[in-house]
Write a structure and sequence with these properties.
The complex is a heterodimer of chains A (255) and B (664). By secondary structure, chain A is of the alpha/beta class. Chain A is 38% helix and 25% strand. A nine-stranded mixed beta sheet of chain B has the order 7-8-6-9-5-2-10-1-11. The chains are: A alpha/beta (255), B alpha+beta (664).
């Protein structure tokens, strides 16, 4: 099977001339369609930088990133914008909804930026909203919704364009445990039901336990990889905690 | 170190807040130009050759002084406003200084120093620009006088410089005090979290907006109707009611407009769900809801700017048009008499030291006559109007004067009469249309349509009564109403010097009518140059004051809009970041910024234009009593002028907003 994402020998350096910070130091990563992959690591380990490079928000110093058969390291900024809006979906820690638009409009915006015909928008938004169970709050503004609802709206916005890859950066970071569970259940449904490929960065072991496979990084280098296989989520969670302990660093950092 | 920090901040400020700096600079520049008017060529000429019209120089300068005080208040408000905007953007920076342990007094001093730097820079640059532009104004006004100034005459006014320094010095002092005061009140936590306390969103129910919009349209329509039916200058309680209705209508208009637009667009899915339209409309809606008050003020200020500039330019053209027509002779003297009297002005002038033979080679003295005419009734504006004609002129006298002007005379048969019209808006003007017979001393005369004239008989600054032109036979032996003496200076002579000599002649009772004269009399002396300068003086008065106030209002309103939009651009950074991540290209984002800026600039302007079109119609009725307002010319000039200044601010704001959004 063709991988949907393959990053090879990725490096990202900051600074220069004797003062180099290696944020990412030779990381390779392959994700196949329908996978739910997590990236874990302590603060400053380079996981967000990795995600930014993959999501074309940042450019890597060296290495190749191929998404859906397209080498994104060679794209120009205009093509990058087009690539982002057609192939990628984003969910961020602070849900990043536009506060002047209702939930419905926030989701629809992803489609109108793609210049999709106005006729099909309403039906699509309603369908996606049903998937994420936010049909009740479509008419509300972000400040009228709970954090969990906001984050699920952001998720709906990310998947409505049917992207090849959904990138999630600490999606549960600002949520209470109940909302986090609700959101992750939806992610799981999307992944199983619609075969949505998800790449999620997190430092929360519980959140990570929803993934099929987890890449751990430490100081910009790959540390280890865990595959869930047929484990139950509880068992997988225990394994994750072990690796996290091995990773070292302050437990406060990790949990 | 302290000094260095202030200097670096300023250098960054000049780059960051180009608009603030430019507005300061522009304010200084305009202020200098209009306060250095006394060095302008026209003003100097008016003072030197104006003769009896010299007083106009003082009135113009005095009026400029008064207006300048008013203008300085407007500018002070603008600068304070801009300054708050700058401080708002720098809250975090100031918080960092405080966090590092800088005392509030020190920070206040830092801001004080920065304002001083910027003030000195803007003053210097503004004055330099002002001196340069004053040369252009000089050339422009000279062209209004239809003269070319032979040698280049550099105009510079120390008085203007000192006055500008004084006024702006005070304004900057106020700003500095204000800065220190507002810094002293700040709490550190507030400053550091400034970014999190953005504007609070006030979203209003949309259907309410539609109702409010309808109400605003009704209010405005009522105000317009009142203005058009009542006219502009009927100042009573109704006038204030009209103003209040208009203002309230404008306020409601801007408060409801965005909601109304949104409602309309939402009803068309095709329009609403296309590209960035949804975002732009929502963004506009959220901003206008917090800013409708300032949009109203801007709209009203624009109305003032358009109205003042338009009327000034229009008046100017009206006056310019009448100069040539008004003065057929270099000099004229008219002596009104109750009793018959023989006065020969040519010899009188020569006796008084003004050699008529030499200085007035072309001259004529004639008598105007008094007639006893039966009242005439004509249709005037749908009603019968009755009037009497008192004055007459003999055909041969009229022809002599016309010959001197190089015009055709009239040829009347014995029982015919002609008319020399005075004002056009008079019932007398109807004589020409309705041509009733005139009964003078019991003898009836028929109208001779070929002898209806509207020429000027002599040089004077006001209109005169309609005169009947009678055949010589019919005119003979009638009572003399007044003696008219007209003349021209020799061609190629120095008219200014001759005119001064002419005006230095003064007549006593004996000179004019002789010692034994017992009746009443009066006389009127006018020269072409007098009229010219007095009209030019009035013209300058309107033009200068109009342009001065117009520019200031225009710049102020444009600058307020620009600053507000730039500060919103800073607030909007996060939103545009989201758009960027959703894959909206820079071009798309830039276009959405431009559209918002455009709406912001265009909406107050368009309402102001509608207001001013209605206002100008009403103003026209007032001005037409003095002369016709040249609507086409004045609106073209005004429009060009507004397009230039307003357009420049619009472009600068688009550019600035894009830059702010690109940076983050």
């Amino acid at each position: 099977m063709e991988p949907i994402l393959s990053a090879t020998n990725l490096q990202k350096y900051y600074g220069g001339r004797g003062n180099v910070t290696r944020a990412i130091d030779d990381i390779s990563l392959t994700v196949y369609p329908g996978e739910f992959v997590g990236i874990m690591g302590a603060s400053g380990s380079g996981k967000t930088t990795l995600l930014n490079c993959i999501s074309t928000i940042d450019t890597a110093t060296s290495g190749r990133i191929v998404i859906d058969g397209m080498d994104v390291t060679r794209l120009r900024s205009r093509q990058l914008a087009q690539f982002r809006r057609e192939r990628l979906g984003f969910v961020f820690q602070d849900c990043n909804l536009l506060d002047t638009l209702t939930a419905f409009e926030n989701i629809a915006l992803a489609l109108t930026i793609l210049k999709r015909p106005a006729g099909e928008i309403e039906a699509k938004v309603l369908e996606t909203a049903r998937l994420l169970e936010i049909t009740d709050c479509l008419k509300k503004y972000p400040y009228q919704m709970s954090g969990g609802q906001c984050q699920r709206t952001a998720a709906a916005r990310a998947i409505i364009t049917q992207p090849a890859l959904v990138l999630a950066d600490e999606p549960t970071g600002a949520l209470d445990s109940k909302s986090a569970r609700l959101l992750l259940d939806r992610f799981e449904d999307l992944n199983l039901g619609r075969q949505t490929t998800i790449l999620m960065v997190t430092h929360d072991a519980f959140t990570a336990s929803y993934c099929h496979r987890i890449l751990f990084i430490k100081d910009g280098r790959p540390f280890t990889e865990l595959v869930r296989g047929d484990d139950s989520r509880r068992d997988f969670f225990a394994k994750i905690i072990q690796v996290v302990t091995l990773l070292g660093g302050d437990s406060g950092d990790v949990l | 170190m302290f000094f260095k920090l202030a200097r670096k901040n300023v250098i960054r400020s000049v780059k960051d807040y180009t608009l603030y700096f430019l507005t300061l600079l522009f304010g200084v520049c305009v202020f200098y130009i209009f306060n250095s008017l006394e060095t302008q060529w026209v003003m100097e000429s008016l003072a030197a050759y104006g003769g009896p019209n010299k007083y106009l120089v003082d009135s113009i300068l005095q009026l400029i002084d008064v207006v300048s005080v008013f203008v300085s208040f407007i500018l002070a408000f603008l600068i304070l406003y801009a300054n708050t905007f700058m401080l708002r953007r720098r809250k975090r920076e100031l918080g960092t200084y405080m966090l590092l342990g800088m005392e509030q007094g020190k920070i206040a001093a830092l801001l004080f120093l920065e304002t001083l730097f910027i003030g000195v820079l803007a003053l210097g640059a503004g004055l330099a620009l002002g001196v340069v532009l004053a040369q252009f104004l000089s050339a422009f006004t000279a062209s209004l006088f239809e003269v070319t100034v032979e040698e280049f005459h550099f105009v510079f006014s120390w008085k203007g410089v000192f006055k500008t320094l004084l006024y702006f010095g005070v304004i900057f002092l106020v700003v500095m005090l204000f800065n220190s005061f507002s810094v002293a009140r700040q709490r550190l936590i507030r400053l550091l979290q400034a970014n999190r306390h953005n504007q609070s969103l006030k979203l209003r129910a949309l259907p309410a907006a539609v109702v409010m919009f309808a109400a605003s349209v009704i209010l405005l329509a009522t105000a317009y109707r009142m203005l058009l039916t009542r006219g502009l200058l009927q100042i009573d309680s109704g006038f204030w009611l009209m103003l209040a209705l208009g203002t309230l209508g404008t306020l409601l208009f801007f408060r409801s407009l965005s909601g109304f637009l949104l409602q309309i667009c939402q009803s068309s899915k095709k329009l609403y769900y296309s590209g960035m339209n949804m975002f732009i409309l929502r963004q506009f809606n959220s901003n206008i809801n917090t800013n409708y008050l300032s949009m109203t003020v801007v709209c009203l200020m624009l109305l003032l700017a358009i109205g003042i500039t338009g009327c000034a330019v229009g008046m100017n053209n009206t006056i310019a048009g009448s100069v040539a027509k008004d003065s057929p002779f270099d000099i004229s003297i008219k002596l009104y008499l109750d009793e018959p009297c023989e006065t020969d002005f040519a010899s009188l002038l020569t006796r008084k030291g003004f050699d008529a033979e030499k200085n007035l080679p072309q001259r004529v003295q004639i008598n105007l006559l008094r007639i006893n005419c039966k009242p005439v009734t004509v249709e005037y504006e749908g009603h019968p109007a009755s009037f009497e004609l008192f004055g007459a002129i003999a055909q041969s006298d009229f022809n002599t004067i016309m010959a001197l002007q190089g015009k055709e005379g009239v040829d009347l048969a014995g029982d015919r009469y002609g008319v020399l019209s005075g004002s056009r808006d008079d019932p007398c003007a109807q004589l020409q249309v309705q041509q009733p017979p005139l009964v003078i001393d019991g003898i009836s005369y028929q109208a001779d349509p070929a002898s209806f004239r509207d020429d000027m008989l002599y040089t004077c600054s006001s209109t005169y009564n309609t005169l009947v032109i009678l055949p010589d036979a019919a005119a003979a032996g009638r009572k003399v109403d007044s003696i008219l003496f007209v003349g021209n200076y020799p061609p190629g002579s120095d008219k200014e010097t001759l005119d001064a000599a002419f005006h230095s002649v003064s007549f006593s009772h004996e000179d004019l009518v002789g010692e034994d004269y017992e009746g009443g009399y009066g006389y009127m002396i006018d020269s072409r140059l007098d009229i010219y300068w007095s009209q030019m003086g009035t013209k300058m008065l309107f033009l200068f004051i109009g342009l001065y106030l117009g520019i200031i209002f225009l710049v102020t309103s444009a600058a307020v809009l620009a600053l507000q939009l730039l500060s919103q651009a800073a607030d909007n950074c996060v939103r545009y970041q989201v758009l960027s991540r959703l894959g909206a290209e820079e071009k798309m984002r830039g276009r959405s910024v431009d559209i918002q800026v455009f709406l912001y600039f265009f909406l107050p302007l368009s309402l102001a234009v509608v207001h001013s079109i209605v206002g100008m119609r009403a103003a026209n009725d007032v001005i037409s009593q003095i002369g016709r307002l040249d609507a086409a010319a004045s609106s073209t000039v005004t429009a060009l002028f507004i397009l230039l200044v307003y357009g420049a601010y619009f472009l600068a704001t688009c550019w600035g907003s894009r830059r702010i959004l690109r940076e983050r």
